[in-house]
Amino acid sequence: MSYSALLTDLYQLTMLAGYFEKGMQNDPAVFDLFFRSPPFKGGYVVFAGLEPALRYLSELRFTEEDLSYLRSLGIFKESFLDYLKVFRFHGRVTAMPEGSVVFPLEPLITVEAPLAQAQLVETALLNIINFQSLVATKAARITTVADGRDVVEFGLRRAQGPDGGLSEVRGAYIGGARSTSNVWAGKILDIPVKGTHAHSWIMAFPDELSSFRAYAEVFPENSILLVDTYDTLKSGIPNAIIVARELRAKGHELRAVRLDSGDLALLSRESRRMLDEAGFPDVKILASNELDEYVIRSIHEQGGRIDIYGVGTRLATCQGEGGGALGGVYKLVRYNGKPKLKVTSDISKSTIPDRKKLFRAIGVDGVFQMDIICREHEVPSPGDLVYDPRKPQITTRIPAGSVLEPFRSVVMEEGVATESSPSLPEVADRCQAQLARLPEGVLRFEDVLAYGIYLSSGLHELRMRLIDEVQEGYR
């Protein structure tokens, strides 16, 4: 999918016009994209959207139609519109690997470019990264609690428009939903598509059994029967068993039955029993109907026997306590060669200045222990004193024996990607591998363990000095 240069807020363009008028457009600037707290009151975020973000940057340009529209607004000078004619992004981008598990205040993406270029891309980068990371995080929570069972993304009809539906599928795939009902997304993203039929198929036939037989006749190798139109246990499953026997007699097998209403734990247990007793232990049970991580957990706790979860509305719309949006922000951290920070009365909302490196401390067991944000020239070591960025009076030391791995790299130079993007399955595999290395408490839904994010001594000292300098100016 291509993105228009007009995928921005008006104030980005008015600032650009101002920078241009004041001769500031080429001043060197550095911006960080980060978030302050995870959604869903959880302990982590899955970083998603990097590949489309880099594609947006590499393709960024104003068409004649774009310029004509901007001219019609009557607020921009012709000299500025002439500047936009040749506008391109020629900056450097440093980022985490897409699919990484990430945490508050860490720079997910750093953009280094002339001020006008770095400023304009703020809105689009936030739009792409915030939404896909939000969905990927929701999907990761769902697939983690599904505990190895397949999760199919079913959310197109409730997604935020056609383009949102495509972005949502991409984020969901990264988070662990490895197939979708969205055919367009399947084509664009080259991922598996799956589906059954609706209740209307059943109701269009004289009775349930004849509808099942007709579907099996048309799709003998791919029959999944929706069994809850009338009565799941008295009608749906018995009729599905009849059709399963007829398919087997012709050399085929019924693939699955689908439950879409009722007590899914109870119905899946009884359906499993009936299918097994009839000689069909390999027929899968697929469940849908307003599922999320909490419902799936409850089904497991009640002994449900579901093999595949079709998750739609609550994934596509990211419903859940503390959900609905990822509050990613994009802040200036260096300008004209000088570190910059935003200061408020609440130090937890003060930004972290300057160019930065990020290291992840990993224990001998492979479990992630903490992340350390440093100045660009620093290389931390086990035993070093580090500082809590929200409560600087709290300090700790990097665990002895840990391995410190750099966790960001340059992914774009002079507006050109430095290497080809990994495939979507590779990104999704990275997500699952990193989730498996988190401390168990970080994965919980309640009483979540806060993963440790710390500043190196050098970065802490720079930040506190700049805060003092700013506050001194207002005393």
Structure commentary:
This protein is α/β, with parallel strands linked by helices and 475 residues long. The protein folds into 2 domains: 10-135 and 323-472, Alpha-Beta Barrel (nicotinate phosphoribosyltransferase), CATH 3.20.140; 195-288, TIM Barrel, CATH 3.20.20.70. It has 17 helices and 21 strands. The protein has helices at 10-21, 50-59, 64-72, 78-85, 115-120, 122-146, 161-175, 183-189, 199-203, 208-218, 232-249, 264-277, 293-301, 313-316, 424-435, 440-443, 457-472; strands at residues 28-34, 45-46, 92-95, 101-102, 109-114, 150-153, 179-180, 224-226, 256-259, 284-287, 308-311, 329-335, 338-339, 356-362, 368-375, 385-387, 395-397, 403-406, 409-413, 416-417, 452-455. The strands form 5 sheets. It has a 7-stranded antiparallel sheet. The two termini are 51 Å apart.
CATH class label of the largest domain: Alpha Beta
What's the alpha carbon Rg, rounded to whole Å? 26 Å
Structural class call reads: alpha/beta
Largest sheet: 7 strands, antiparallel
CATH architecture identity of the largest domain:
Alpha-Beta Barrel
Give the rounded overall mean pLDDT: 96
Unreliable residue runs: none
CATH homologous superfamily caption of the largest domain? nicotinate phosphoribosyltransferase
Shape: globular
Tell me how many strands there are: 21
Note the total helix count: 17
Domains, number: 2
Report the sheet-strand fraction: 15-25%
